[in-house]
Structures are given as C-alpha cells and as structure tokens.
Amino acid sequence: MKKFSAILIAVLISFAFNSIFAASPLIKASFYEAYQFNETVQYVEKIGMFDGKVAAYLMDENVSLGDKAAVINALPWNEKNKESVNTYKMFLGRKYSLGYTDLKLNNLNGDELLCMGYMMLLDENTAISDAKGVLELAIEKNTQSYITNLIYAIASAQVFLNDKQDCDAWTICNTVRTNASFTKDINDQAIGLIFQEVDTYKSSCN
Fold it and tell me: Cα 101–66–169 angle (5° rounding)?
C-alpha cells in the first residue's frame, strides 16, 4: 500500500510539473495556414523540423515578423524538434561570432528576440516565465509590433489561465486586438485564427 501511494504521489508530482510547461491550445493556436503562400512555411510543413535554412530565414532582416512567426508556428513541436531553441541560438552565435552560451539577449534585435521567445513559449520543456522574459525584451525593441505584443499577451494569458483567471486571459489579448496604434505586421487571416482560440475565454467575462 505504501509503495502504491509513493508511486501515485510521484505520478501526480510529475503531472503537475509537466503542466507548468505544456503548451496549451491557446499557445498552440495554429495560424500558419494564413501563410500557405510562404515557401518557407511550405518547406517546414514538408520536412517537419528546424534546420539551417529555417534559421537563416528567421535571421533575414528583409522578412516580416508575421512571416517569421508563421514559420515558427508551422513547426511541429515534438521530440524531433526538442533542440530547436538551442539550434537557433547556435546560428545566432555564428552571426555574432559567439558561442551560443555567450549570447547576450540585450545584443539581439527585436525580431531575433521575438523568434527566440516564441520558440521558447512553444517548447514544452521551457518555463513560461523564461519565454516571457525574452518576449519582454522583444517588446522593448519592437514596441509597436502587433505580433510581438500579441505573442507576449498570449504568454501572459496562459499564466492567467493556469490561475483559473480566464477573463483576464481574454482581456489581455483583446487589448492588443483593439490597439490601433500597433503596426500590423501579421495578416488579418492569421489574427482571426489566433482569436478563434482566444475568444473561447470571452464568456468567462460575463
């Protein structure tokens, strides 16, 4: 009996621990379908993994943030891609002539921070607080970026959902939707797909 109880406790602790990191339907909201015209999205769908071609695309300063976010969103976040964040850091290190462990977040530009933070958010082995820290820096460098503010809002919303504060989760995302001052760097169809998931929490505000 004692052995059974110990096993049960271990299972419950493991479940609770994993639930802190597991990406929810909100975090995993698919919007890359709105970027099917994007060849790199098509490439990611075909090969199903993060590689040098994807890293180069994410670091291309001529590519919009919406397109970059769509490529990350298209990645299947499974065992095959568990090292994607570190791989991205490795390529950033090459860009800045540093080992990836020597990268300083403050030296990265807003696009790079958004890509890294979003990848961390989708990675079930990364704490949401760590992803939020990177996304906060991304906002500091891309203050008016719609997609940057929305991804940060989604991360914050997940914290509210973990605390059973569903209305606050919806509100923080809706605040981004209604802010006309942000630069629309993601297309309207993608926004609609994201808010299909966000709006499932709206009824909790009634």
Answer: 85
- Chain centroid to Cα 134, Å, comes to 11
Q: Cα separation of 176 and 193, whole Å?
A: 15
pLDDT in tens, 164-201: 999 999 999 999 999 999 999 999 999 999 999 999 99
**Residue 116 to residue 122: CA distance in whole angstroms:** 10
Taking the C-alpha atoms of residue 56 and residue 105, their distance in angstroms, rounded to an integer, is 18
The tokens of 168 are what? 């606050």
Residue pair 156/172 in contact (Cβ under 8 Å)? The answer is yes
CA distance 41 to 68: 9
Q: What is the DSSP letter of 206?
A: -
Q: Buried (b) or exposed (e) across 139-177, using 16+ Cβ within 10 A?
A: bebbeebbbbbbbbbbbbbbebbeeebbebbbbbbbebb
Identify the CA nearest to 70 among candidates 124, 113, 34, 117: 34
Q: With H, G, I as helix, E, B as strand and everything else as coil, classify residue 20.
A: helix
- The C-alpha atoms of residue 155 and residue 12 are separated, in whole angstroms, by 25
For tokens 């969103």, name the residue.
Answer: 73
CA distance 18 to 125: 8
Q: Indicate whether this model's pTM tops 0.85.
A: yes
**Residue ranges with strand state E in the chain:** none
Other beta carbons less than 10 A from residue 182's beta carbon: 18
